């Protein structure tokens, strides 16, 4: 037999009471918990979103997963262990891969071993990057300049041209 715990039930210990036709009774307690989850949004592709989450069981394992608009996991899940108050440690982040397509519809989903699941919406913005170029100078006409460059999007094609 299952008893549904109504949405909005206050967290904490609750008593479950049974009674038969003869007036016999029995009771036990069950602990109700209500996890919450918030993330910093928007976040640029290639960056991380900070997670604020509480209401989990104390000192329990929680898994945080970025999910794309199609409902597919993106990247590896981030494991966390809650503190004595049921909070995910401050500073916990979930990475957003550089290849994540910008837009709405992403979520960060938190789950635990008891099947609790909460989510928070996340908007992904285009990747932030700051390309740099350094060229040796002076150079004689007909000679070569050595170019050092960085800060481009990973695995992107870059064309260098003298103007």
Characterise the protein shown here.
The protein has 163 residues and is mainly β. The chain is built from no helices and twelve strands. It has strands spanning 12-19, 25-32, 36-39, 43-44, 48-54, 61-67, 73-81, 93-95, 103-112, 117-125, 132-135, 147-150.
Instruction: Provide mean pLDDT, rounded.
Output: 93
Total of DSSP H or I helical runs spanning 4+ residues: 0
**How far do the termini sit from each other?**
78 Å
**Biggest sheet overview:** 5 strands, mixed
The best one-word shape is rod-shaped
Q: SSE order in H/E notation?
A: EEEEEEEEEEEE
Strand order of the largest sheet: 4-10-9-6-7
Radius of gyration: 26 Å
The total beta strand count reads 12
Q: What share of residues are in beta strands?
A: over 45%
Secondary-structure-derived class:
mainly beta
User: Percent range for helical residues?
Assistant: under 10%
Note poorly predicted spans.
Answer: none
Descriptive keywords:
163 residues, mainly beta, five-stranded mixed β-sheet, three-stranded antiparallel β-sheet, 12 strands
Please write out the topology.
Elements: E1 12-19, E2 25-32, E3 36-39, E4 43-44, E5 48-54, E6 61-67, E7 73-81, E8 93-95, E9 103-112, E10 117-125, E11 132-135, E12 147-150
Parallel strand pairs: 4-10
Antiparallel strand pairs: 1-2, 3-5, 5-8, 6-7, 6-9, 9-10, 11-12
What's the short version?
With 163 residues, the protein is an all-beta fold. The protein has strands at residues 12-19, 25-32, 36-39, 43-44, 48-54, 61-67, 73-81, 93-95, 103-112, 117-125, 132-135, 147-150. The model has no long low-confidence stretch (mean pLDDT 93).
